[in-house]
Fold this protein.
Amino acid sequence: MTQTPLHITIAAASLATLAACAPQPSSDVSRGETEFAPLYLGVDTRLLEGDLVNFHVTMSGARDAEDVHDYAECAAAQYTLIRGFGFARHVRTTTDNQDGVWKGDAVYTISPALPRGLKTIDAEVIVANCQENEIPTV
């Protein structure tokens, strides 16, 4: 039996270690690389209390939960304008994806003046953006 010299064994081990550190091909696909073929399946709007409104949206062909959030935001913005208000504040959105059908459950407050908080929207600006991006509103 022939023994391999120690320096060759160390060199081989070093190469194996370096190969493990090399960037590996990623299976992650960025949002921009994902096919976007949305099918907007409807919005159910419920006035909860006073200025608090709940939007249930359903769609397929979404890339991720952000597309569902955008759909709900478009619905909220249009509803805000329909009610004669100019602004809304996002309270929360939850999403669920089952077999490619996405559902969103979003809550917004609507108001005539810019509400306090970080997640406020100007309804006219959002509706215009939705039209530009071909996202339906209420």
About this structure: The radius of gyration is 25 Å. The longest strand covers residues 87-98. Strands lie at 39-49, 52-60, 87-98, 101-111, 120-122.
